[in-house]
Design goal:
By secondary structure, the chain is mainly β. The chain has strands spanning 2-7, 10-13, 18-26, 33-39, 46-52, 58-60, 68-73, 78-83, 92-99, 111-114, 118-123. Strands 2, 4, 5, 6, 9, 10 and 11 form a seven-stranded mixed β-sheet that branches. It has a four-stranded antiparallel β-sheet with strand order 1-3-8-7, with no helix packed on it. 0% of the residues lie in helices and 53% in strands. A hairpin with a 4-residue loop joins strand 7 (68-73) and strand 8.
C-alpha cells in the first residue's frame, strides 16, 4: 500500500511562488512515474506535470511549461512541484499521484495512488 501526503499549498499573489511537496510512505515510488494534477472548482481534474522517479525525465502541460518545475528526492520518497510566476488561473486543489507504470501518462487513469490534495489560491 502506498500513501501520498501533499503539503505546501496556500495563498499567493499573482507573480509569486509556492513549492508543493508530496511524501510517499509504504512502497517507494521508484520505478513508477509520479505526477501532479489539479482541479479547479467546477472543472475536471487536469494534468500538470509528471516525472520518472528512476530517470528524471519530465513532462509538463502547456499551461505551466516554463513556470513550474517537478523534481524528486528519491532518498526521501518525496516529489516536489516548484511553482513560479503564479497566475489566478492556477488556483485549484493540487493532487499528487503515483503511476501504474514508469510511463509519464497525462490522464488520471494512468495513476493508481492519489494524495488528499492541497489547496493553492492565487490572488490577482
Amino acid at each position: 500500500q502506498v500513501q501520498l501526503v501533499e503539503s505546501g499549498g496556500g495563498l499567493a499573489q499573482a507573480g509569486g511562488s509556492l513549492r508543493l511537496s508530496c511524501a510517499a510512505s509504504g512502497r517507494t515510488f521508484s520505478p513508477y512515474a509520479m505526477a501532479w494534477f489539479r482541479q479547479a472548482p467546477g472543472k475536471e481534474r487536469e494534468f500538470v506535470s509528471a516525472i520518472s522517479a528512476n530517470y528524471g525525465n519530465t513532462y509538463y502541460a502547456n499551461s505551466v511549461k516554463g513556470r513550474f518545475t517537478i523534481s524528486t528526492d528519491n532518498a526521501k520518497n518525496t516529489v516536489y512541484l516548484q511553482m513560479n510566476s503564479l497566475k489566478p488561473e492556477d488556483t485549484a486543489v493540487y493532487y499528487c499521484a503515483r503511476g501504474r507504470t514508469a510511463l509519464l501518462g497525462t490522464t488520471s487513469q494512468s495513476y493508481d495512488y492519489w494524495g488528499q490534495g492541497t489547496q493553492v489560491t492565487v490572488s490577482s
